[in-house]
Amino acid sequence: MQEKVLMKGNEALAEAAILAGCRHYFGYPITPQTEVAAYMSKKMPKIGGVFLQAESEIAAINMVYGVAATGKRAMTSSSSPGIALKCEGISYLAGSDLPALIVNVQRGGPGLGGIQPSQSDYFLATRGPGHGDFHVIVLAPASVQEMADMTLKGFELADKYRMPCMLLADGTMGQMMEPVVLPDPVELDNTPKDWAVTGTECKREHHIVNSLYLAPKKLEDVNLERYERYKKIEEEECLWEEFMMEDAEICIVSCGITARVSRNAILEARKQGIKVGMIRPITLWPFPKKPLLAAADKVKSFISVELNMGQMKEDVELAIRCKKPVYGCTRVGGMITTVDDILASIKEAEKGEE
Amino acid sequence: MAVVFDKPKSLTDNVLHYCPGCTHGIVHRLVAEVIDELGIEGRTIGIAPVGCSVMAYDYFTVDMVEAAHGRAPAVATGVKRSDPSKIVFTYQGDGDLASIGMCETVHSAVRGENITIIFINNAIYGMTGGQMAPTSLPGQVTQTSPYGRNTETQGFPIRVCELLSELDGPAYLERVTVNNVKNVRNAKKAIKKAFQNQIDGKGFSLVEVLSSCPTNWGMTPQKALEWIDEKMIPYYPLGVYRDKDGENNG
Ligand SMILES: Cc1ncc(C[n+]2csc(CCOP(=O)(O)OP(=O)(O)O)c2C)c(N)n1
Ligand code: SF4
Questions:
Q1: Is B114 in the pocket of ligand 2 (CB under 6 A)?
Q2: B201 CB-side CA count, 13 A
Q3: What are A32-48's pLDDT values in tens digits?
Q4: Separation of CA B16 and ligand 2 centre (Å)
Q5: Low-confidence ranges of chain A (pLDDT < 50)
Q6: Which residues of B touch A209 (CB under 8 A)?
Q7: Is B52 in the pocket of ligand 2 (CB under 6 A)?
Q8: How many CB atoms lie within 10 A of CB A241?
Q9: Which ligand is nearest to the CA of B19?
């Protein structure tokens, strides 16, 4: 095991990607994730890896697509406006069944928005970021430690299911410094994948990496196959963390930085005699519906605490099949929910006000 | 008995879907012959575009990747950077390379990316049914320039080789055509050089091929070949626009 070190979230994720065996990084500068590119530009040349500052986010994701087609681990990172540009490439990755890691250190929007933390790409990430029917696995870290761990996990899941994975962090996670124990370096199996383009060496049929199927039945079939895989992921890969849920009467649902603030609000509310707990989704797709549905039989209500206008709230309502009221506690624009904001929502929920 | 005609090894047995008289087929054959002659079939990876040649992945026996519209040079960059010992080429139309993908084209040239680009300039969007391309000639009638390309409102054609020749990055830029036997021979020489350059690590090599689209030009195949001589070559002069070797600099 590695030693505990103090690191910025963005740097921890960059180092973790290298430890995960990723040797190909393509990016385009944008706040608040630029440290990832800076870290990679320093490190990659020293370890025989590739750092390339692309001409745009579109080019960067297509370079990732190229490396992924050869069967190697590749990644790109950006923030909200840049992720919007990557959506075309993400759809092609999904349609060609290629693994890759896409990091989105979100900032406020829409448009150019701002550069302060946000979770307003929740819909974009969880509804399949791009055209067509598809999903990406979405991981939402809530500490610098998880920035590192989820990077590793992201590559693993992407490879396991041959699909893109998005690390969806809010700006705070990228910028904050915390102690972190980096993962041990991963030993990758370097035998060529049976689908990758590595040159035929005139010994096998050619491999084709492609998302075009002009025959409707064939295209339907590949979509159905992909959704079979998605079903398995929904069953097997949901991650979440529960906090003080044993006796909770109100359940907060929150991820990333707002989950951290919610913890403090929960402790404060309990001092005042209100039994609040939290379910923190770690995978946003697949969304941990089961624990939420189970909680719906025990708690009086839910509060979705998030840095957007209530995007995750919709998933909470769907997960609990609208069995209990779901309150929203939201701040946007780069404003971060405070303990007081959350306490106010807790009191509203306690009173049962609509 | 001497064999006078044979199919290149690097072409599959699939029947090409191109229209009768379309020169995409000739260029496919030239690329395949070059791959055979250089003995690089086993280590070549091709990138297909979005356009009439989208299904190039079914026609070459080498490993193939299908790229999004215009993104082939970026995809090729990824493939090449993943394993520089591989020979990576893109095959792109003019809408793909010079319109939606212009940024990727220019910047792969800027980086001097060690890849080979085969650029089919047929002055039209073939696959989508004959709309105006960035390379359509002034006055050219297309589905989206029904009164002829009006340079006042629709701008002027892009001369890709000339444009890229302003950059320091490219190693080799040549414009050729395939409208007669002599020109086909020249085109093959250029394509071979563009692949040889990559093998030798010389960097970005692009061959622009003036190509015909009889279907969307509304011409017989024969007339289309003549139109290349009469209309295209005067606007797009054939020749070498960059050769870092110093030979043939024209
Ligand atoms: C993002 C996107 N925009 C538009 C299209 C539609 N489209 C398909 S082929 C094509 C034009 C291709 O023309 P060109 O590159 O000149 O090749 P040609 O067909 O003439 O060989 C277009 C616009 C697409 N597939 N994707
Ligand atoms: S539409 Fe034009 S470019 Fe396309 S195959 Fe037919 S002739 Fe060739």
A1: no
A2: 3
A3: 999 999 999 999 999 99
A4: 11
A5: none
A6: 64-66
A7: yes
A8: 16
A9: 2
Q: What's the whole-number average pLDDT of chain B?
A: 96
Residues A187 and A287 in one domain: no
Q: Which residues contact B64 (CB under 8 A, 6 or more apart)?
A: A197, A206, A207, A208, A209, A210, B45, B46, B47, B48, B56, B57
Where does chain B have alpha helices with state H? Answer: 24-38, 56-59, 72-82, 94-95, 102-110, 151-154, 160-164, 181-199, 214-217, 221-227, 233-235
Q: Give the percent of chain A with pLDDT over 90.
A: 98
Pocket test for ligand 1, best of B96, B99, B136, B160 (most atoms within 8 A of CB): B96
Query: What does the DSSP 8-state code read for residue B167?
Result: S
pLDDT digits (tens, 9 = 90+) for B19-64: 999 999 999 999 999 999 999 999 999 999 999 999 999 999 999 9
Q: How far apart are CA A217 and CA A291, in angstroms?
A: 37
Tell me, yes or no, whether A212 lies in a domain.
no
ipTM over 0.95: yes
Above 70 in pLDDT, residue B249?
A: no
A67 in reach of chain B (CB within 8 A): yes
Chain A: closest CA distance from residue B56 (Å) = 10
A92 → chain B, closest CA residue: B68
Q: Indicate which residue's Cα is closest to atom 2 of ligand 2.
A: B213
- Candidates 3.40.50.970, 3.10.20.30, 1.10.3720.10, 3.30.190.30; correct CATH number of B24-243? 3.40.50.970
Mutation to probe ligand 2, out of B16, B17, B18 (largest number of atoms < 8 A from CB) = B18
Partner-chain contact B67 A200, CB within 8 Å: no
A28/A167 same-domain check: yes
- Global model pTM greater than 0.95: yes
Which of A23, A26, A55, A214 has the highest number of chain B CBs within 10 A, making it the mutation to test binding with B?
A55
Same-domain status, A188 and A264: no
